[in-house]
Amino acid sequence: MQKKKAYFPRRFKKNDALSGKRFLSVVLFGVAVALVLRAFIVDIIQVTSGSMQPTVNLGVRYLLNKTAYWFGKPRRNDIIAFPSPVLKGHSLVKRVIAIEGDTIEIKKKEVFINDVKTKEPFAYHSRDTVILVGDNLGPLEIPKDMVFVMGDNRDESEDSRDWKDGNGAHIYFIPVSKIMGRIILLH
What we know:
Blueprint: H1 14-41, E1 42-46, E2 61-65, E3 79-83, E4 91-99, E5 103-107, E6 110-113, E7 116-117, E8 137-141, E9 146-150, E10 174-175, E11 181-184
Antiparallel strand pairs: 1-2, 2-11, 3-4, 3-11, 4-9, 5-6, 5-8, 6-7, 9-10
């Protein structure tokens, strides 16, 4: 009959301290990579307004591609995030409707870009028969390095049609340099 070996706790060796240091190094490297990604490449943004419904839903988190305009400019229909021109400390999500060089005009809620009526299957009007501020606008020519933005939920969105600064002057355009990135829709 064989004698049972007694169990003794494993003793620590010099290599155990090294593997702990390696583990800590890997964790710190992972955290550093995540911070760099979040600061410069991609971030998560949560929508807190219904101004982009039904395309971008209230309370849902979306990815924000911060590199989208490093080597190019915004295009019509891009959904972007940018600091609010009227509410300091707030960020907004809106759709680019017109870009530099375009002429925009809005007639009875219908959008015309360069004298051509646009097709906007994403636009939603909750008050079709009511003419609101911004439902007749322009024509306005979009300056260089600027965009004109609107929410998809047109009758419930405050956007380029109706923003005003502290002196009551209209703020029609968002500088491209202020755009934080393009929203990635994951449908």
